[in-house]
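A reminder from the course coordinator: this example appears on the midterm review sheet, so study it carefully.

Given structure:
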């Protein structure tokens, strides 16, 4: 009997989580930026930074909608999955599909690395200005529809920092009924 997959919503700082992998809201250069990207690069330290510089040199960075994996350096996680979400323009530039790809490619990379627990931020909803409601629907919809196909990933955490994202994720998750899934919503 397969163990049931788990999804957890928590409010907090993703960089403090001792999970197998945390996902970074990266940009195409993979060389750091503002927001969560800045915090991760600052806290992860030089070894992680060096790994990103190598990826930039070897692959020229990472296209929007794709993801790359590095060590997590000084962070408690084992890996960082740098996922590049789209900047929101007007919804007519493939933004929804690109955000969906960022989540599904990050999950796929995680499973390749035999990651069992992975934490996602709300990709593209900060500097990139993606509408939070639509982003939350895409995040949860993409993860839940692809999770059953993965052998290793068993627990996905959605980690949000602001109350608006928390309310959106809580509202979507609390309405889900799926006997194959354990849904945990951490009260704040
Ligand atoms: N833990 C969890 N979530 C966080 C944290 C944190 N420590 N810090 C920020 N967030 C949240 C933000 O509140 C937002 O909801 O992560 C989400 C993504 O925000 P950004 O970091 O601004 O990323 P994004 O909107 O995807 O834009 C990416 O910004 O930081 C630059 O280099 C990055 O160019 C890239 C762009």
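Designed residues:
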């Amino acid at each position: 009997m397969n163990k049931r997959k788990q999804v957890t919503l928590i409010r907090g700082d993703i960089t403090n989580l001792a999970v197998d992998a945390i996902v970074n809201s990266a940009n195409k250069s993979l060389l750091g930026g503002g927001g969560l990207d800045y915090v991760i690069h600052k806290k992860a330290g030089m070894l992680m930074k060096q790994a990103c510089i190598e990826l930039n040199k070897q692959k020229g960075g990472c296209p929007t909608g794709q993801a790359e994996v590095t060590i997590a350096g000084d962070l408690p996680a084992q890996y960082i999955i740098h996922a590049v979400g789209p900047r929101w323009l007007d919804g007519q530039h493939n933004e929804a599909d690109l955000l969906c790809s960022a989540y599904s490619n990050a999950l796929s990379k995680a499973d390749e690395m035999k990651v069992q627990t992975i934490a996602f931020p709300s990709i593209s909803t900060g500097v990139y200005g993606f509408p939070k409601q639509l982003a939350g629907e895409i995040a949860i919809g993409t993860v839940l529809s692809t999770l059953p196909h993965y052998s290793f990933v068993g627990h996905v955490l959605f980690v949000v920092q602001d109350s608006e994202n928390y309310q959106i994720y809580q509202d979507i998750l609390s309405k889900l009924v799926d006997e194959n899934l354990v849904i945990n919503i951490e009260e704040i």
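Residues 47 and 73 are 6 Å apart (CA to CA). The first strand starts at residue 5 and ends at 11.
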